[in-house]
Amino acid sequence: MTSAEEGLSAAWVPRDPLPECGESSGRDPRDMNHTKGGLVIFTANSHPSGRELSKRIAERLGVELGKVQVYQEANRETRVQIQESVRGKDVFVIQTVSKDVNTTIMEMLIMVYACRTSCARSITGVLPYFPYSKQCKMRKRGSIVSKLIASMMCKAGLTHLITMDLHQKEIQGFFNIPVDNLRASPFLLQYIQEEIPDYRNAVIVAKSPASAKRAQSFAERLRLGIAVIHGEAQDAESDQVDGRHSPPTVKTTGAIHPSMEIPLLIPKEKPPITVVGDVGGRIAIIVDDIIDDVDSFVAAAETLKERGAYKIYVMATHGILSCDAPRFIEESAIDEVVVTNTIPHELQKLQCPKIKTADISMILSEAIRRIHNGESMSYLFRNIGVDD
Question: Transmembrane ranges (predicted)?
Fold first, then answer.
């Protein structure tokens, strides 16, 4: 067994977050192997651990992974060969995002197009983490890259998309196909209840006002208090760097009356770091959707430690953990980082034992089963509000 397989096998598996799955069909709700014929699941070779996630999903559905060959030629071009018939079948392409994001996208697009030209009945993409999701707003003379990726996927032949915790829910509007944006919060909430001793003495923390809604959602479901850290360094996604706030380089008065001037927006000034809420003598649980550059999380942990928190957890759906993130976490005041396996991070877990994994293959396999069998997806979104 490789180190990556060992890391994945050590992932925390939820007890049963879908206790009423399939209740409308009148069968055993835990029978995940009940699927109609004509289901094919493909996975690319973006990352070995990504194949392990696909294997878990296939095992829950009681099917074998489809036969496909994906490789790069000497000139780095991606080639895909479908090695079984998909004519008239429902194809699901599972792709996890590796460090080489662009290769991951090309594998996905070429595989989808190969299935389309092979006369598949439907092609559903399963991307637990949607790449380029942070680039979903116009910034000065940049572009909305996530809109471009969505258009490329639709053009390649995708007929449905399953993803999880989009960075901005509005990204669903970039597609002209159905998008199911699943939530990982039930798994993280269950982890808190089962794996954090004395979690009743905890407080849910938003490391910035931007993540306050997510923190509020967690706090209300766990019946806990909430705290918000305000005054940290300017976030890269703030509206201050949006091109719409850029003043004209040359003052011109030819088009308007000389006495009229366009009022400029007053520049922001961050106040000193403050914590709104009491964390003294409590367990602090920081929640967010993505943990990549951990500087802001480390700074938040230090602030909470200074305010009296005696244990600090970080909960996030997508653990990108780029560059030296594992080392920074290991040397920080953070006691534990819990992420799901939407993105492979086995190497980071070997570098930092504080990183833990919650398995979300159960909800992905149930979503695939329901779509393939033509069942309602509403149960998977039960008790999810507009702000969740």
Answer: none
